[in-house]
Design goal:
With 341 residues, the protein is an alpha/beta fold. The chain has 12 helices and 6 strands. The chain starts with 5 loop residues before the first helix and ends in a 5-residue tail after the last helix.
Length: 341
């Protein structure tokens, strides 16, 4: 997600915007089709609502990113896990907000509120996330939930609410122990937001903890080999668990242990169909604008089938294959809770 060359980046997006203006192009911002009347693979029809960051973003920035073949933070045109889960339960998840060519967020009809770059509660203007491309517009999760409630009033028992956030808080927190308060505050604030979701009528809420960010290519490339990011991820998760328990929410949500899951997938990457684990990226940094998976497409893959054989799209984000496997894991955990199969 780091800049490679300011002038090249600006030129690319000037061309992209021109293409969009001339062709009337847009990304994945079509209205949600709603639930199906037939029984889906998950055994129950559910409407999906998603809050979080780039790991769950279904296309907030697609209207601009699609001009260069991108649209989501993965190996485009592949889907992220929230889209796969939505399909499993008979739904189609689209973005609640999308960016336009003037770099402003515009409300759409979708229920995918997760936005790349979002923290739990930190205002966007405190981040330089792809500023030259998308501007400081991403909503923190607290604002995502407020936006949902303003538009829809409440949640209901026919919805499955997916919550996955905190990675950007950890990435921006710095080194422990100085970063401890920032990390812990993010986790406790997220639990307060989850409580707000439950209090406003949600009966099926999935809460995903942080993966081991230290094992990402970004983590491995850091001076300590990812040790600080691993410890910060663990601190966030420990605080999250404790706060959920203190708030009496553990019995009211479905917890997903992404930390342990990712550790296991990396340890057994070949058995899971990968040829490259966390030691390389599927989106060739020399070909992919800004070296971010948001702008990754088949023409910028390291190899033709990198979306299936690599684990990481860029230095932080999973490939299409990892998203598909994670969606299956989430679906299994949901079924264990007694919802669907």
């Amino acid at each position: 997600m780091r800049g490679t060359n300011h002038r090249v980046r600006v030129a690319i997006f000037a061309a992209a915007v021109a293409m969009l203006s001339a062709c009337g192009g847009h990304g994945d911002s079509s209205p949600s089709t709603g639930t199906s009347t037939t029984t889906p693979a998950g055994g129950v029809n559910l409407k999906i609502v998603s809050f979080g960051d780039s790991l769950s973003d279904v296309g907030t920035y697609a209207p601009i990113a699609s001009a260069v073949g991108g649209g989501r933070f993965t190996t485009n045109p592949g889907q992220v896990w929230t889209q796969n889960v939505a399909q499993y339960y008979g739904d189609t998840l689209t973005a609640a907000f999308t960016i336009d060519v003037t770099h402003e967020l515009k409300a759409q009809s979708g229920l995918g509120y997760a936005e790349g770059g979002s923290t739990v509660a930190t205002p966007a203007n405190q981040s330089d996330f792809l500023t030259n491309v998308i501007g400081n517009i991403e909503m923190p999760v607290t604002q995502q939930v407020s936006s949902y409630l303003s538009a829809h009033g409440s949640f209901n028992s026919n919805q499955l609410v997916l919550v996955w956030a905190g990675a950007n808080d950890v990435l921006r927190a710095g080194q422990l122990p100085a970063a401890s308060q920032t990390v812990e505050t993010a986790a406790t604030t997220l639990v307060q937001t989850i409580g707000q979701i439950v209090q406003n009528g949600a009966t099926h809420v999935v809460v995903v903890n942080l993966p081991n960010i230290g094992l990402s290519p970004d983590g491995l490339a850091s001076a300590d080999g990812g040790a600080n990011l691993t410890q910060s991820s663990q601190l966030f998760n420990d605080t999250l668990n404790s706060a959920l328990q203190t708030a009496g929410l553990q019995s009211k949500v479905i917890q997903i242990d992404a930390f342990t899951w990712l550790n296991g997938i990396i340890s057994n990457f070949q058995a899971n169909g990968f040829t490259v684990s966390n030691t390389g990226v599927a989106c060739d940094p020399k070909k992919t604008p800004d070296a971010t998976s948001l702008l990754c497409s088949p023409s910028t893959y390291t190899t033709a089938n990198a979306d299936q054989t690599y684990m990481f799209a860029d230095d932080l984000h999973p490939t299409t294959h990892v998203h598909a496997l994670f969606a299956q894991f989430v679906e299994q955990q949901i079924a264990r809770s007694g919802l669907g199969h």
